[in-house]
Amino acid sequence: MARRKSSIHGREGIAGWVFTAPMIIVLGLFLFVPVLMAFWVSLTNWAGNGNPFGGGETAKFVGASNYTDLFLKDGLTRSTFMQSIGNTFYYVLLVVPLQTLTSLFLALVVNNKLLRGKSFFRTAFYFPSVTSSIAISTVFLFLFSNSGAVNGFLKLFGITGPQWFADSRGLLHLILGLFGADNPSWAQGQIFGRTLWDWLAGPSVAMCVIIILAIWTTTGTFMLMFLAALQDLPVEVDEAAALDGVSAWQKFRLVTVPMLRPAIFLVVTLGLIGTWQVFDQIYVMGKGAPDNTTLTPAFLSYSQSFTSLKYGSGAAMAFVVFLIIVLLTWFQRRIMREDKKPGWWRRRSTLVGAASSGAAAAATPADSTSAAGAHR
Amino acid sequence: MTTITKQNTTPAVHEADLRRVRNSGIKKVLGYAVLLIFAVIYLYPFAIQIATSFKDDPQAAAHPLSIIPNPFDLSAWKRMFGLTSDSSVPIMTWLGNSVLVTVIVTAARVFFDSLAGYALSRLHFRGRGFLFAAVLAVMSVPGVALLVPKFLIVTYLGIYDTYAAMIFPLLIDAAGVFIMKQFFDSVSVSIEEAARMDGAGVFRTFWSVVLPMARPALITLTILAFQGSWNEFSHFLVVTQSANHKTLITGLAGLTSGSLGAGTQFPLKMGAALLTTIPVAILFFTFQRYFVRGANEGGEKG
User: Fold this and answer.
1) Which residues pair with A191 in a beta bridge?
2) Which of A128, A221, A279 sits opposite B42 (nearest CB)?
3) ipTM of the complex
């Protein structure tokens, strides 16, 4: 008996490696190795000519200068990179709270027991999340074009809409302008090669379209997560709250929100992770135009490599983005781990499983991009 | 809203009940109003998209809000299906590439992901813990950081701008392996053990006993793989270049970001975008509960 068992285990040992061999080969060859290659390239000045690993003048080792150029050296690379960071900062600042609040709000309304047609509305709100980001961006390009539906709608109220995709004015600049501030002397200090006034621009009008698009495409997925969490809330608490005669707002604030805390944390962190990955939308909606105000670090890394042919610098930017996202993901996994329990597939709420897998699994449903990154 | 008065007299309770009924009526109307407004916001863009694809260019610009094309114009669709002499936008080629890549990638992912997921969940072998940790690590790697790396490796292997470069790197995804591993962790091991005791080999057990039991997870995985590969953009963007390797998505992105043709051509763009949306939409409406499960609501409830 003992011998038989060990022979089974022996076979399992081989089978284990055979079964996982395709995964090891594909992920190793097209993920692990290339990341190492790109790290090497990020330490060179390779510009697309010749062999990037061959050394020589075309792929000279330059140490960390591609990285220090992004942060320390005054120049076009740094100011563009810092602008893309600034753009993303405002993008995250608006998208994450708005998508969290909207999806929570929709989940609460859809979950209301008095209302019928729950599945219809759930479907309607979720559908944009599953469609291609490129196709959706194309539709939004039309909706927000100068003679598009949005401006047509605004015209019904006598409002002349802006030229959305050509308008590089920052929202905060516009608001500060109402108070008479226009590039004042107190905002001339330089931070990372940009004036304080530039940092204070806020998202440009063009960026606002992408922000609206991101919120529009992600709320469906996040609404489903909130719905799952809401359905897991114990009914007794609800009833007790109703009997104690608390108002709906009090119940929401004192009962629902605290109990939804894990779900809210999940949605916020997935949002944070996803917002740094926006790429497809930027590519379709102007590639950073107007005036680089829709540029994101992820897209800049692409254009720096494939358009400007500065692969070393582009790869360095990619690693910076990589680091930001990995830190956010690890932070999330660490906090969520406390709640981790096995067997999430069987359970009604699978939120925990999603959480433990970080961005990818939650994104899983709708492609890592759509969930976190309906963004991308 | 419903504060029940302290002196528990009948009229007071009555009044509270009435108020509750009235309140729930108002709540209902408000609830439906909110739902309808949001439904319009979420669905109207698709209606505009469909309608615009049946308009001509001037009409699309003049009546952007209308969802009834008048006159009804088929020229965008004729152009897409190659029925006109204008071949600047070869959508049928793109469609063919999309179908080819999606079919191969979906089939491969379903098979290889469940194979690896099964091994990581069930088979005892040295290095299993390390491999699973590696899968988790890989899942946290953002796709946008992999563009330069992918370009480097396909160039290095000499397969830049080929179908091989489009397909091979997508054959397995860590998230799919993770899903299958979690699934196998959750199902009982007893049936397999019976099969194994009867002398079936590891692969035989996997193929004829385990996979048939994994149907729900396999359907979810199929949907995710189909959707993921059909909607894939950035990977194809960096590993291909020539026009005959364009998929619907990369082709549409090129068309929209202005490298092809002249003018706004919104009907054509809306039509092409619609064409890319239709397969996923059909899948979505057919297997909705699996999508919902995928989005972490579901489990057994379905």
Assistant:
1) A194
2) A128
3) 0.86
